[in-house]
Amino acid sequence: MKKSLYVFFIILFLMIGSSCDEDKHDPLGTYVAYKAAYAAMDYGAMYDYLDSSSRSKMTKDEYVELYKGFYGVISVTEASVSDRMEELDLERKAAGADTLRVPVDITLVTGIGVKKFSTDIKLVKENDEDGNPNFLVSFALNQMYEGFKSTDKIIEQEVGPERGRILDRNMKVLAEDGDVIWIGMIPGQFGNVREKSIDALSAAFGVSRKYITGRLGLSWVKPETFVDMIKVSMDDKEAVDALVISNSGITYRITRDRIYPYGEAAAHLTGYVGLATREEYAVLKTLGYPITAKAGRSGLELIFEEDLRGRTGTEKVLVDKDGKIKEILSNDHNNRGKDVVLTIDIDQQLKLYGAMTGDSGTASLINFKDGEILALVSLPSYDPNRMILGHTEAYYDNLLKDPGKPLLNRFTKLYPPGATVAPLVSASAIETGSTAASLVSEVSGTSWQKEPAWGKYFIKRAADPGTPVDLEKAFISSDNIFFAQMALKLGEKEFIEAMQRFGVGEDFDTTFDFQKSQVANLGVMNSEILLGDSGYGQGQVLFNSLTLPRALTAIADDGNLKGLRLVKDVAQAETRNILSAETADRILELMRKSVEDPSGTGNASFIEGRAIAGKTGIAEVGTGAARTRYGWFTAIDLDGGSPFIATVMVEGLGDRGPGYAAGKVRAFLTGELPD
Question: What region holds the Penicillin-binding protein transpeptidase domain (predicted)?
Answer without folding.
Answer: 361-666
